[in-house]
Specification:
This protein has about 500 residues and is of the alpha+beta class. The chain has 13 helices and 22 strands. The protein folds into 2 domains: about 190 residues, no CATH class; about 160 residues, Glucose Permease (Domain IIA), CATH 2.70.70. The strands form 4 sheets. Strands 1, 9, 10, 11, 14, 15, 16, 17, 18, 19, 20, 21 and 22 form a 13-stranded antiparallel sheet that branches. It is rod-shaped and about 110 Å long.
């Protein structure tokens, strides 16, 4: 289940995209349209990076705040002589917003389906543009071909570009790679100067690779379809793209007043036939600001800079500080972790265990340390090596409360010569064992909840001092509790 990661990604994306939109609006009159375009494009293009960026935490995952050291297993705690409190091992997700598993799965499913549908639509439109072009006739109008050739030389375009004729009111760029120009069947408004002006604009789209860039933007934006202002970002990109190509026409020698008149004439004729994936010179919307920019001298008279790129970089870095504040309540099916374990035959091995069967609670409060690790250790009385099936926790004194580390049934409670006073709690295939207690506060067949007090630390049975021997068994196989504490933030 990736719901927490999805929520973290969407929060980061909202921060970056929203801030980029605000920056664009603030600097709209101060920077060229091409710079504004790359600011928004960059904000969208970094979304895959945000998806891969881990959420910031004050303590790295798997570290648990133990004086900056990670817990590899109980042996490492013993070797390094740590003394710490149980509060340092509490899950950092305890302050998260818990979402029911069924709701989380529904959100994931809806997000995936809508994102795939939008991506499919984008790919379908790009694919069908080839079929649409195959039904058109190559352009044979010499005046359009001459206007295109002059624009191609002006822009320094080397790639192959095809020209087609179509019943549209103005030329537009289309095709899977954006290297086809469809020109209108000649009529009275298309003088030589206007043909050259509009070709400078359209070839500018090819030089900028706008068709491919917009297809990439739409594919990435499909992953954040649920952010309300994403449509405004896409519209802003279209506006800045057109204004950037307007600047190509102005710097190519077209008089701003003539070019503005051309756009007004095209806009006044109403919607025109188009093809899938086409990018026309004018859509008639928000034309006033665009005309104003052209009359004032266009992009050539504006000053650009590195500020938008620097701001975008700062926004991306700031998004790393956004923590994941969502967590899914309930088990996470299918998650497994690798643990050391001791078989019933007395062999130390490593294997995978389903996290749903692992108790994650801490049996002691207050300050304590690992006095004997899990696995192969020397016997404190004989000095000979043997396999220790649990972990010994000690605070050097008796009487501290011992708590259940999972909810379950007390399957056994009593006294034996080796274990001393002991309690065994079972839940499904999992049992937790607490040995060498001073007192027992539960009885066999009692139902206990996680965190309930079941006894106190003692030194009963075969013991060299006050401590708690704590075991976790999965189907009678003993596993290392410290390794579970280390890994539990991942499940």
């Amino acid at each position: 289940m990736f719901f927490p990661g999805l929520m973290s990604f969407l929060i980061k994306a909202t921060l970056v995209l929203g801030s980029a939109l605000v920056v664009r609006g603030f600097f709209r009159e101060r920077i060229p349209a091409s710079i504004r375009f790359w600011l928004i494009f960059g904000a969208i293009a970094v979304l895959p990076l945000l998806a891969a960026m881990p959420a910031f935490d004050s303590v790295p995952r798997g570290d648990h705040g133990l004086r900056g050291q990670g817990i590899a297993d109980s042996a490492q705690l013993l070797d390094e002589g740590f003394i710490f409190s149980s509060s340092q091992l509490r899950q950092k997700s305890s302050g998260a917003i818990l979402v029911p598993e069924a709701l989380a799965r529904s959100v994931e499913s809806v997000w995936i389906l809508v994102a795939l549908a939008l991506m499919g639509k984008t790919l379908f439109v790009r694919a069908t543009s080839s079929r649409a072009l195959s039904r058109l006739e190559p352009c044979g109008d010499c005046e359009w071909l001459e206007a295109f050739e002059r624009a191609r030389v002006h822009h320094g375009i080397e790639c192959r570009v095809r020209l087609y004729s179509y019943a549209s009111r103005s030329p537009f760029v289309t095709g899977p790679l954006g290297r086809s120009i469809v020109v209108p069947i000649a009529d009275g408004i298309w003088t030589r100067e206007r043909r050259e002006a509009v070709m400078l604009h359209e070839v500018g789209h090819i030089k900028r690779n706008d068709i491919l860039l917009m297809a990439l933007v739409e594919l990435i934006a499909a992953t954040v379809w649920c952010i309300p202002f994403v449509p405004f970002l896409l519209k802003a990109l279209v506006e800045d793209r057109e204004e950037a190509c307007d600047a190509f026409a102005i710097t190519g020698g077209v008089r701003p007043s003539d070019y503005a008149s051309l756009l007004l004439d095209l806009a006044s004729t109403g919607p025109a036939p188009s093809l899938p994936g086409a990018q026309g010179i004018v859509d008639g919307k928000r034309l006033g600001r665009r005309i104003g920019s052209i009359i004032s001298g266009g992009e050539a008279l504006m000053t650009g800079g590195k500020l938008p790129a620097i701001l975008l970089g700062l926004l991306v870095m700031a998004s790393a500080a956004v923590p994941s504040v969502f967590a899914v309540s309930g088990p996470n099916p299918g998650t497994v972790i690798t643990l050391r374990y001791i078989t019933e035959a007395g062999t130390l091995m490593t294997g995978s265990f389903d996290t749903r069967s692992l108790p994650t609670g801490i049996p002691l409060d207050g300050l304590w340390r690992v006095s004997m690790a899990f696995g192969e250790v020397p016997n404190p009385q004989t000095g000979k090596k043997y396999l220790h099936t649990g972990i010994d926790l000690s605070d050097e004194k008796a009487g501290d409360r011992v708590k259940a580390t999972m909810a379950g049934i007390v399957v056994d409670a009593g006294f034996s010569q080796a274990r001393g006073n002991y309690v065994v709690i079972g839940a499904g295939e999992t049992t937790t064992c607490f040995y060498h207690l001073d007192t027992i506060r539960v009885a066999k067949d009692d139902r206990v909840e996680k965190g309930a007090v079941i006894g106190t630390v003692g030194s009963s049975g075969t013991s060299t001092g006050p401590h708690l021997h704590y075991e976790i068994r999965i189907r009678q196989t003993a596993v290392d509790p410290a390794a579970i504490w280390k890994a539990r933030d991942s499940f």
